[in-house]
Amino acid sequence: MSAPQLRPQPPGPAGELRGLRRFLTERPPRQERCELCGVAVADNSHRHLVDTEKRALACACVPCSLLFERPGAAGGRFRAVPDRYLADPDHRLDDSAWEVLQIPVGVAFFFRNAALNRLVALYPSPAGATESELDPSAWQTVLGGSRLAALLEPDVEALLLRRVEGRAECYLVPIDICYELVGRMRLLWQGFDGGAEARTDLEAFFAHVGGRAQVVQGADRS
Question: How far apart are CA 147 and CA 36, in angstroms?
Fold first, then answer.
């Protein structure tokens, strides 16, 4: 799933963000609907599917999303985005590890594109999701041996990283919230460094992720 393909098709209120864009251009916002059956869905509680052919996210009602939780459903075209958040406090990344990844900002996410059989590295920017060229050896050195990398589901989950004060937090998260973050930063970004409002929103976003994340089995909770 590459950023240039995803950007023209924002994924809805939990993506890059169709909901936020409508909020800015329409009064009142248009009711979101399941993109499979057409039923109205709640803005903040519906699920998403990855359309592996279009390389895009699609809004889905709960019944439709459940149909695609089974591997291979519909020939594998649609895959339901899981709702799990995981953390591994044993796997710590320092500044030197971040330099290996060559990410120019303090937040990035990584997911495996099953069709291309490669890792995709993206980071938020005022223009949207920006892809970073990632050497496979860099991925393997920094993240490949972690518990979270071993659990990562292709296309539908991502490793979300944030660099803070010489260390990096790493979470396994649903792919749609990564595009939600991209949309939020694009909407709020001001000036060279993003501005106070964007930084405050980023803090709140990661506080939410950290609050939801469960520690993977075998990790030290101390």
Answer: 34
Q: Are residue 178 and residue 107 in the same domain, yes or no?
A: yes
Cα–Cα distances in Å, from 113 out to 82, 118, 119, 121?
16, 6, 6, 10
In whole angstroms, give the CA distance from residue 200 to residue 203: 5
98-149: pLDDT as tens digits: 888 888 888 999 998 888 888 888 988 888 888 887 777 787 788 877 899 9
Tokens of 193: 């460094």
Clarify whether residues 33 and 107 are in a common domain: no
155 and 97, same structural domain?
yes
Per the CB < 8 A criterion, the answer to whether 32 and 58 are in contact is: no
Together in a domain, 175 and 105: yes
Of the candidates 172, 97, 88, the residue with the CA atom closest to the CA atom of residue 138: 97
pLDDT in tens, 39-59: 998 776 688 999 988 888 999
Which three-class secondary structure state does DSSP give residue 107? strand
In whole angstroms, what is the distance from residue 168 CA to residue 71 CA?
33
pTM for this prediction? 0.79
Q: What is the CA radius of gyration of the chain?
A: 17
**Residue 58 sits in the same domain as residue 95:** no
What is the DSSP code (8-state) at residue 135?
-
Q: How far apart are CA 215 and CA 100, in angstroms?
A: 26
Neighbours of 164 (CB within 10 A): 11
